[in-house]
Amino acid sequence: MNTQTTGVIAPRKGSKLAKLVTLLSRKSGVTLIKASNMLDWQKHTTSATLTPKNRSYNIERETRVGKDAIYRIREQAGGT
After folding, report:
1. CB distance 24 to 38 below 8 Å
2. Residue 26 CB contacts under 8 Å (≥ 6 apart), including other chains
3. More exposed terminus of the chain, fewer Cβ within 10 Å: N or C?
4. How far apart are CA 30 and CA 70, in angstroms?
5. Residues near 4 by Cβ (< 8 Å), separated by ≥ 6?
6. What is the DSSP string of the chain?
7. What are residue 58's phi and psi, to 5 degrees?
8. How far apart are CA 17 and CA 49, in angstroms?
9. Given a cut of 70, is residue 55 above it in pLDDT?
10. CATH of domain 3-73
């Protein structure tokens, strides 16, 4: 992710936040439960981290009937 053109400050390499960004950057995205388990965070901590107030990433939430919602970082205009 090119942080210079998007205005997003990249998390510290190797941090849990960097791992979360990696999970969110996947085309398939990640569920709240899976992200929480992979990061060893409480569900409410992961949820709070995904709020727009905490990060400059454009995170989209895809609701699915009968399944957990999927979260992913939405691509910026221009495909970055």
Report:
1. no
2. 72
3. C
4. 5
5. none
6. --HHHH-PPPPPTTSHHHHHHHHHHSTT-EEHHHHHHHHT--HHHHHHHTSTTT-SS-EEEEEETTEEEEEEEPPPTT--
7. -90, 95
8. 9
9. no
10. 1.10.10
Average pLDDT over residues 67-75: 91
pLDDT above 90 covers what percent of the chain?
59
Instruction: Enter the pTM of the model.
Output: 0.76
Give the single-character DSSP code of 69. Answer: E
Which structure tokens are listed for 32? 């709240």
For residue 24, which amino acid is it?
L
In total, the chain counts a number of residues equal to: 80
* Sole residue written with tokens 């400059």: 56
The HSE-up count of residue 51 (CA atoms within 13 Å, CB side) is 7
